[in-house]
Design a protein that fits this description.
Helices cover about 20% and strands about 0% of the residues. By secondary structure, it is mainly alpha-helical. The protein has one domain. The longest helix has 6 residues. It is globular and about 20 Å long.
């Protein structure tokens, strides 16, 4: 759920717009 890359990928800090990337969090916790 990271914005782009280099972010922590925390859902609490992720805007609703990037909630679609929640699947990527399972694969890449770094939000890559």
């Amino acid at each position: 759920a990271g914005d782009r890359c280099g972010h922590t990928g925390g859902r609490s800090k992720t805007p609703p717009t990037f909630i679609v990337n929640d699947e990527a969090v399972a694969l890449k916790p770094n939000g890559l």
